[in-house]
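for the record, two folds in this file. i put them one after another cuz i was lazy. first one right below, seq on top, structure tokens after. the second one comes after a little note so u can tell where it starts
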Amino acid sequence: MTEKFTSDEMMTIAASRALGNDDICFVGIGAPSAACNVARLTHAPDITLIYESGTIGTAPDVLPLSIGDGELCETATTTVSVPEMFRYWLQGGRITIGFLGAAQLDKFGNINTTVIGDYNHPKTRLPGGGGAPEIASSSGEIFITMKQSLRGMVDKVDFYTSFGHGNGGNDRQEQGITTRGPTLLVTDLAVWRPDPETKEFVVVSLHPGVEKEQVQATCGWPVRFSEQLEQTPPPTALELQTLRDLKARTKAAHEGTAE
């Protein structure tokens, strides 16, 4: 009998499965960090995790609050300067996967983490890009994970923070970007892959218990479903326990003991 799990747990675990032992992964804070560390603690113990602050080969016992969290430096194989991280490691072509989250995403994998609405008269100011624009253009390929909502998954992003496939097709290459761009999107409802020709994200797998109508109801563009639509395998007991233990350790560490 399969243990009960939440949609967030399914999303994190499905995303973690896309990573392998040989990957050198530039990790975003939040959901990408959880997925990457579940992979490290289960099927990919030799994966190299890199965070934007310059920590290489980090193996945190708890999830970091930010790229400046001491947990990252303390558990890293080495820590280099930020200029070295970006110029030598990232722009030098040594990162196989950049794993990012998104506040706003369109069907071609373009990410907005800058502003909602008109740039000069915004409805909401977002945290900004940080290193994500460089990660999106210089990593070998990009994985994205986020929860589905009409507010987050839009027909056209309000601002291009991190360039995906632009307007689709060969737009990325025409802009002079030679890396593959977004190759995977994992949400709390489904797994998506870009169409080889148009580069529009297509649903290739529905998570257990999810119907097509749910995916469309939380997506701001007409959703395409693969003709060979599959069901995402549910989390194993090991995957669930690993994720829950990691979250429990993180909660305990971040709450602290101060009164």
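(here's the note) second protein begins now
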Amino acid sequence: MKRKLVRFIGWLFLGLLSILAIVGFTYLVNPKYVETKVMNTFYPTVNISDEYKDKIVVEVPEVYELMQIASSLTETFQNDDNLLKSSSSYYQDFRNHFQEFENHELVLKLNAAFEKNPYGNNQHAIRMLSLNYDLDEYNELIDKDLFNINPATRSFLSFFVFFPSSNADLIEDFAKKSNFKAFYKKHRGYYTKLIENYAELCDFKGMQTWLESKFTSKYQSYRIVFSPLTFGFHSTTSLKNADRSMSQTFMFVSAPRENIDGMTPQDFEIASSRSSRVVFTEIDHNYVNPVTDQYLKELDDAMSDYKKWNGQNGGSYQSKYSTFNEYMTWGVFNLYALETYSKENIDSIIKRETDFITDRRKFIRFREFNKELIRLYISMGKPNIEELYAPIFDWMKKESKL
């Protein structure tokens, strides 16, 4: 019996080696095929319901806001003003209602998940997966079957990220004891007003039309999700549906300006540009990043040392890839701004955004980058963005030597 077991293990080991050898050889011959097969097997897909197909929807989902409230009670969020917006009446309402629950087990578990890296996988998983649930009248989570996740992927990730499904009891207990549903219902009119402000401030359809005229990527659904408690930390991702025929992109952003009534046309346009940039620079990651993926070698040559372009001390942009994509997404917003805003305001709009990313966010050579990108765009007759990659990389090579 022992000899048979040893023989079985030996054959199993040889079988695994053979599979790895076949996969490795196939990757050398056709890496794109292997990457596609792996993505199709292990990467999640999304079920796009009719309420989102061919639409741009701005929303404050109930369970999403529940998780943002619980996260905002953590010590990690309270000590990071990029994660938590504390300068609003909504924040005061939140503190008055939920402060006594800051030692609830859910809050403590979230804080433990955030302590090492509040901008990492736990944060992204909570934002994304909270969309998969509704909350019924008994404060119990209802699974909407929004995402299709390979069991192997789910099992692997469960060791590293906070899954709402694995913490349902804690989430439901927090919702019940804090009377979250009453708070959410009380502020529903406030959420609606903010959603209306976003629609007035941002021409979402115009953004989509412009981006799809400048890139080959197409997305059949935009979901723009926000919480009034979110401040500067924004994120985005996109998923395909099960048969890969449609794509949905998710933007997690901060709330728009509360009061836009009675503004002069000039002030309104400035306010519009600020809110638009917040959303646009998340939306266009879904267009820029796939193009950058095609030019990784050229990027490696052009940005020999990303620290010459990125003055941040830590954070989420510690690579050439992430640094360049941030340069490009903000640069593309300025190209969009050139064709969107009035001659009277365009210089101040571009200057404000350029100063912000250069001086505040420490992408230290963005001023020069943006100036060259605009020059190329105009001199080349406003081409598709992909056509700007080769010349901007040539320019960056020269700049890197300075």
